[in-house]
Fold each of these.
Amino acid sequence: MLETISTTRAHGGTQGVYRHTSTATGTPMEFSVFVPDHEEGARLPVVFYLSGLTCTQANVTEKGEFRRACSELGLIFVAPDTSPRGEGVPDDAEGAYDFGLGAGFYVNATEAPFDKHYRMRDYIEEELPALIAAEFPADMQRQSIMGHSMGGHGALTIALRNPERFKAVSAFAPIVAPIDVPWGQKALAGYLGEDRAAWREYDACALVTDGARVPDILIDQGTDDNFLHDQLHPHLFEEACAQAGQPFTLRMQEGYDHSYYFISTFMADHLEWHAVRLG
Amino acid sequence: MLETISTTRAHGGTQGVYRHTSTATGTPMEFSVFVPDHEEGARLPVVFYLSGLTCTQANVTEKGEFRRACSELGLIFVAPDTSPRGEGVPDDAEGAYDFGLGAGFYVNATEAPFDKHYRMRDYIEEELPALIAAEFPADMQRQSIMGHSMGGHGALTIALRNPERFKAVSAFAPIVAPIDVPWGQKALAGYLGEDRAAWREYDACALVTDGARVPDILIDQGTDDNFLHDQLHPHLFEEACAQAGQPFTLRMQEGYDHSYYFISTFMADHLEWHAVRLG
């Protein structure tokens, strides 16, 4: 059952915020959907946007500057939350921002106590698209996915594992090699345990190295991003793609940081790139 | 002395947030400025944007979706705060949102205790433009002004009192007749006292009726705005302009509300309208 929290007219379409009880996470989940005006009975392609650490659906919904382009291009834009939330959902032991609430890393956790609710992979791969297909005028033959930072990691790994589902994938400043960086090591150990073999299906570099392929990938990365040299390392993905023959475009954006000022600047570009591939 | 709180690259320009000690208000004041990339030595036209009740500079800076259009059109965008703030600044007696902090109404208060700090008219009319002229690559021969709700009231009244300064004025869902509506009556009585003759220079309808003129005015108003029928009454301004021969365009926007979803939708339109008049 889908509960409507709000619908607001914007940029020639409807920006909605919704809540439902997720069977994947066992919690209420909120997400936002923008639907451009369209002819009755029409079905529009769908772009999923996965957010980064600390975010909810609200960050991109308020600051992402996607509606004008979505309206012009006829794209539905879906923005889920980044983790389960609510009573009984375990958080980071010290309440850190990079694990637990707001930091689900788009995995199915196998370690207690996180394995009960932290099933964001199932949520994004199975439950949310089924709900979108049932409740919105979406053409599920034309889906694509993008994300920012931790959400870029989510978009890349989900697309690489499900190449038949997505016609396009792109990312803003993604975590491309979680196995090799502090954010990823903490999260994957916490959610999946210490056996690193289990981490590889949640690592874009490892997936490409292990044979996963999509038609092409676009990444924008700001050169003044505080996390560039410790957490992001887009050159690792560039190398993995080059070695594997995976088509890949990396655009280093001079002077841009990790914030929504950066994302909003290149959002329309990405949506145009998606629209071409969504047909 | 201008203190830089932050500068961030965005949409091919620089989004800055600044603080200074205002002589007009006797308090620290924060404002944001977006400066598009430009040739060295170039001076760009300036758009002042005045925000509504409860806002700071941050609302439009984060949600206004003005940067792309400003960059394309070569416009500097300045967003001041809506009131003085800080220790010793008196607020509404009951802490209501519609008077005191976040609700300066762009007047010079004459009633104690507000007369000491609530001098937003002097701040916007005198001090801020001098600071912008001194510190930014601004062509002060090409200024315009816009605003939302209480800030639309500010933009209209300031432009009507200073027709030589501004080449364009527009507003989103402005308070056009504060003398006649609850928000305005509370604010003007509180800041100016009960003599309604003193209110007329802060009422767009009264100013036009009393002879003030600008070349033309653009207003967008959502039909689903919760405040339309109690506080905004754009038809009062339409009637005043028609009677006075003041050129005026009112666009009723079907289904839009009072929020930044509405503002961001029509922001680029307004900036294009300003750019034509700024030359």
Note: The interface with chain B takes residues 8-12, 15, 62-63, 65, 67-68, 222, 224, 255-257, 259-262, 264-265, 268 of chain A (CB under 8 Å).
Amino acid sequence: MDGSAQKYPDCIALLPGADVPCELYGARAASIVDLMAADLPVPKAWAFSVETVRKFARSDFSAEFPMTDAVRAGRLLSVRASAQDRAWGGPETLLNIGMNADLRDVLAKPLGENRADALYFRFIQDYAVKVGRLDAEDFEIILERCTRAGVPNFGAAVQQSLAFFEDETDSAFPSDPELQLRQALRSLAVAWGGTSAKILRGALGAPSDAGLGLIVQEMVLGVGRGEFGSGIAQFVSVGTGEKTAFGRYLSQSQGRDAMEDTQKAQFLAKDPRGPSLEEIYPEAFARLQELAEYARKAFCDDMQLEFTIEDGAVWLLDAIPAERTGRGAVTMAVRLATDGLITRQAALQTISPKSLNEILHPQISAKAVRDRIANGIGASPGAATGRMVFSATAAQASEARGEACILVRVETTPDDIRGMHSANGILTERGGITSHAAVVARGMGLPCVVGAADIDIDTRARKVTLKGGEVLGEGDVITLEGGTGDVLRGAPDLVQPELGGAFQTFMSWADEFRKLGVRGNADTPEDFRMAQAFGVDGIGLVRTEHMFFDEGRLTVMRELIFADSDNDRQAALNLLLPMQRDDFIEMFTIMGELPVCIRLLDPPLHEFLPSTREEMQSLAESMGLPLSKVMTRIDDLTEFNPMLGTRGVRLGITAPEIYEMQARGIFEAVAKVQNAKGISIKPEIMIPLVSAKREVELVKSRVDAVASAVQVELNTKLDYAIGVMVETPRAALRAGDIAQNTAFMSFGTNDLTQMTYGLSRDDAGRFMRDYVALGVFPEDPFHSMDIDGVGELIQIAVDRANAVNPDIKMGLCGEHGGDSASVAFCHEAGLDYVSCSPFRTPIARLAAAQAALNVPKN
Amino acid sequence: MDGSAQKYPDCIALLPGADVPCELYGARAASIVDLMAADLPVPKAWAFSVETVRKFARSDFSAEFPMTDAVRAGRLLSVRASAQDRAWGGPETLLNIGMNADLRDVLAKPLGENRADALYFRFIQDYAVKVGRLDAEDFEIILERCTRAGVPNFGAAVQQSLAFFEDETDSAFPSDPELQLRQALRSLAVAWGGTSAKILRGALGAPSDAGLGLIVQEMVLGVGRGEFGSGIAQFVSVGTGEKTAFGRYLSQSQGRDAMEDTQKAQFLAKDPRGPSLEEIYPEAFARLQELAEYARKAFCDDMQLEFTIEDGAVWLLDAIPAERTGRGAVTMAVRLATDGLITRQAALQTISPKSLNEILHPQISAKAVRDRIANGIGASPGAATGRMVFSATAAQASEARGEACILVRVETTPDDIRGMHSANGILTERGGITSHAAVVARGMGLPCVVGAADIDIDTRARKVTLKGGEVLGEGDVITLEGGTGDVLRGAPDLVQPELGGAFQTFMSWADEFRKLGVRGNADTPEDFRMAQAFGVDGIGLVRTEHMFFDEGRLTVMRELIFADSDNDRQAALNLLLPMQRDDFIEMFTIMGELPVCIRLLDPPLHEFLPSTREEMQSLAESMGLPLSKVMTRIDDLTEFNPMLGTRGVRLGITAPEIYEMQARGIFEAVAKVQNAKGISIKPEIMIPLVSAKREVELVKSRVDAVASAVQVELNTKLDYAIGVMVETPRAALRAGDIAQNTAFMSFGTNDLTQMTYGLSRDDAGRFMRDYVALGVFPEDPFHSMDIDGVGELIQIAVDRANAVNPDIKMGLCGEHGGDSASVAFCHEAGLDYVSCSPFRTPIARLAAAQAALNVPKN
């Protein structure tokens, strides 16, 4: 034997200070040693290494067995799984190894005949099922046969079970404890290697060569005369993280019986619903609390304890991190840091940014009955219940009646926006994670399920046909779960979020450490107030077109589009100007001196025009135009690929009067608010869809001219920044040119992803699932940024822009700003800020803090 | 005076061997010196430098005037423009400087009173107009007044003109020759600096600081007793480049009179239309031919001569490169090289690849009357005349009747392809240089004008409303000029191309020098034969979808799309397979062992489905399906941005049976043709729209499996290459990954441009003119490749692909393959070949040769 084999033997006795690395002996082994080191009462135990367990699977028992003495002394043993990572699970524990006729007789004295027989029967059944691969059902039948007037005769059941085992396996039930132990070890080792176990843990993130250690532990019986029993306990709430007793205890039980038979099990603390350990045996309850506190300090985390009470004494069999939801996790982490058990940095690092999602929106209660009728893509988190409506108008009517509704559409268009504002949730049959419905819903913080392809929505007939053929209609109540994409029948219980207390403390810590700014995307004054409530560093994207979809404004916008003469055009612009100005006044008033980045009009003009014949007719009437003229104009503006058409700066250059009106609206609003509030506001004006330097020059010169004019007219001083939205690969590649004329660049990664992949976000839903399932894309690139492609373009742009203009500010505004991996990339790429839906800014703040805390990768 | 000023004086006498760089004294000065050096008879001349002329414009006459002696000796002089570049033009020549009453008397002896007076009158008029800025019309009125019975009294006209001049200018007409000369020099110098002159030469490519030198030359009179006169002559045909006499002579004339008064002017060689120099004065004609031959040798080019005959002696005043069309240029260049006057390399370098366009298609005769009724974007060169038809069906009917027709559509769709094949030209109201109509037309070599926005096409009513309101209908004859985008009424004379002789010799020289392969894009057997006729190195792009638009096949394709079961799907595929196979058999049979690159199905499936309700109805009937089902399926497949949707490899992965069928068709065809012809064929199979490595792996493994199966089934050996089409920016960025699995990469620069700019080629027409006019894009990036953006992506891909797979073949297949600047880029980027429409391959071959001949830029 060489030194290293000496250091890490096949089997090691678990003692305080023992060196048992998780990758060699599994996580449970390490846990037990830590419990022992904290002087907590843990039964004697040994750990077989991962390598040795692999030999067991091949029936190679050449390893040393240091527990032989215990076996020979007639001690009952358990064999427990100790996977390298707790999260990967493992085969079930096998209890009461060593039991045979002789030991049964020995135990009959302290326990009584029937309890001793019951233990023996239980062992035979367990062993027969787990080692002998017999059917558990057969043993239940035997037990039933041996039961008279509700009283089981375990002695008879033992005899019949032994005979049944011999019948089925052609060999006698082993009575040799050493043989029993070896077979138990082999059976757990083999179970770990089974195909279904591998698939299962693969889904939990285990690699294909994931290893299992095994623990052999002396039993604390849990049954006997006096207070015996077992249970599970943690002293923090799973859902809220607050201090409370959570778990169950069952007298006269072993292992996880208390959790499996919750009907019979007792509560831990006093509870109106039934008896509790605190009442039955207050000393044991107090001791358990004490042990939990010791464990918390030993592990620097709230722990869940597996315990057994043996004649009044509390023993711990295992300790794992306490169960917790995202919300609970935040509360626990904050208290651990406040108690000095962990640093604030560590507290920030323990929480997955994604898990904040469930905190920020109502959730379906874990206890609710789920009658799932469809499943789509979970596009915007949170749960929402309401009556189904099939049009924007119906949604508004529903809101007017004070009735919660879910807007159900094949897909949404900008015309639906008002309806979306009125709805509690959105369900669409088509579209992907960044379809119109998804993007708008996330912006509004509205739960949304898109691409529910297994249902058929007929908006004209106002009905939904489910997969099985059942039909639901307008007014039927459904519930969306935006996290999972589930659509449920009826109104299951929802749990509302609370963002105070620990959550706020936690976020303030994130802000202490993060380097990256986090702004919100906001289009309306309501959005602005929401963003401020979420504590953003500013507004990273105001999509001004959203201001034109309101009823009164849409008409003027359409008049502008239909204007035949300069006079008509100017008349429409004169109507739009005060509307825009008033919006901006409200926004600047809300945000004060925080930066606000306003994107000039972006979508193609046809988005403002009606799409159905009825709407065209009514538009023709309201404008006093022949229908044919309306239809021709709409036809003229129709595009094959609107995403790649006359929009953004292309519109700003070919129809410059719109941008001029917008610039004037901004500047007049700035002047007014500066005067009123005595503050200074420096608006950021962003030009969308740029692909060449000259585009910036042309727009900039016009905006500058408007600013000069307003300064003179209002006798005021204006300070402003003009920048570009980088959405085309060419803008990224030519960032060195473009940056010469711009104060900032903001990456619009939705469009940049579309163009880099040649992939329309509206149409990607059709094949994205197949693509992710086949591993073509590791993830939907509209969900988590494609670092290899889009990321490289961003890095190229950052480097080239900084080289010519070191003062340039760089940001990202898009859905990716709320995705933690993308935020981490932005931090490393050297961006100044990310901007996303206000509802996702906490995620961005935490992700930014984690990125700042990580050691750089190179 | 320092050395350099010494070397290049303000004014230099032009003598054989004089050092007169064009940038200092202008091109005419250099020309005159060259003529003198070749010992040709040129009147004495001096050149003022560009710098000195700038002083003249400021009335600074401090320069030396070495021609003072000539002036004092009573020699008449001319002042001629000598711009740094001939192409920039220049102010008109001023003749007869030095004329005054005294000299008139001197000249009256040899010339006669009236001729001397005529010369004097002419000078007064010329000087008064060009120097004094008076109105030429006033002098015509004076002359008329002095004319009796058709005989002008020039003596009286002189007197009245002198009086009129003094009246108008308040100063006597200058009689001092030196003063006349200075004023003449000043007036030409000032004219050069005028705004309209600057704009004019700017349009001809002159920089804003373009300079003008001036020539002062002794006059050869051109008038007198005996054979006197002047003219212009070249001895090669402008249109064909063949040897012939082109030009005019006018007895008793000066300067360019012969060209301005072609009614009175004589031909050079004998001509049935009228008298000629050859008849009037054969010795002078022979001398002129001789001088032209000397000049050709001196300048190593065919030259146009400006000549004057003075008492029988021929004098040359200037020689410029002979006028020539593209066709003429090729013939001249080939003959110059064959005669040993220039090298083949030089011959190749003198021809602009673009100019070959006019050789490759019929052209509207230069003499034709042009009744232009509209103007659009010239999308595919050549002229075509025919009766207007408004549908594909009508075009086919017209072809069946043997009647030439022009297909007139608002825009074309794949459904129109058969009609386009039947038409002689295409006219659309919408679309840009790479719209469907434009791309298909160029592929077919069909003249095409798109985006003719000034007309209104109503296909249902079968009429076109012109801008003025006039309406043309079906059957009316129009003519398209694809080069200029003009649409003409009626049938002007066309000139047919001849590609033999000099053109073929010229192209064979291009092939000697070029390094870059030139392939053709071809979709049908007809295209393949065409490509072969054009002498391509292979086929760079077979768009297999074009095989499915034929009537019989479209139905089967639609059956495939509507198939509900695997059985139905397989049945449709079984029908398509032999069709594909037969196409491939024909293609491989035509091309033999030349490489053929076949692109697997690319367009989204909805392109195969009907778009009007009538067509859907008829499809429903033919398939025995309810109309609602047809409409629903079409609706399901409709995409917001089809360019960015489920097409290309995305289809190949989500509906793999189509690619498998295509692969089988290719392999079975290869096996059959190899057997039949005893040759070995290595097809190149290209996967479109790739953006990730895994896409290639998935398709490749299926294609490999089909190949293995076919090899076994047919007991044959198959050799093939699998590669990708690089159309997305991501594919270019990830070329290092992707190249690991691919034998070749072909850049699809149409789509790559669309995605790099975020610019749909179908929708770009709306703003592209504005964009180019405003200088946002220097050129339409679909026309000439965007080297800065798209080019960088290509270079990145080439470098990364070569780094991991040095054997990889790289090509470009797209419209840019026929654009000379883009071809030059491909050469420098290290591509192996470009592929374009067969009709544009000569352009690519010449551009490739020129790129190879150029000294590398770094």
Note: Residues 732 and 797 of chain B are 5 Å apart (CA to CA).
